[in-house]
Design a protein that fits this description.
This protein is α+β, with helices and mostly antiparallel strands. The protein has a domain of 64 residues: Orthogonal Bundle (Arc Repressor Mutant, subunit A), CATH 1.10.10.10. The chain is built from 5 helices and 3 strands. The chain has a 3-stranded antiparallel sheet. A hairpin with a 2-residue loop joins strand 2 and strand 3. Helix 2 packs across helix 4. This is ArsR family transcriptional regulator. It comes from Amycolatopsis vancoresmycina DSM 44592. It holds the Pfam family HTH_20. One of its GO terms (molecular function) is DNA-binding transcription factor activity.
Amino acid sequence: MFRALGDRTRRALVERLVRGPASVSELAEPLTMSLAAVVQHLQVLETAGIVRSEKVGRVRTCRIEPAALRAGEQWLGRQRTTWESKLDRLGDFLAEPPGTSEGSTS
């Protein structure tokens, strides 16, 4: 999922799809690349489970898959809690006067 979102174009596609479903043509319109290139980016997002699409007639419509984004958000939330805890401990350590940290033998 994060590899798929690591690309600026794919992030732009996701940002657009968060506002609602769109056809591949609509998604490609503001981009400076071929329709085939946009389709490749969408396939990466679909493989990652972030986007799903359906074809009706000649129009392929894409939608965001909220569950996949929620899973990523939850993972990031857990990581943030861990990082904040470690940074808090580092801040406490750095705030101690020299020679007063645990394990000091003076």
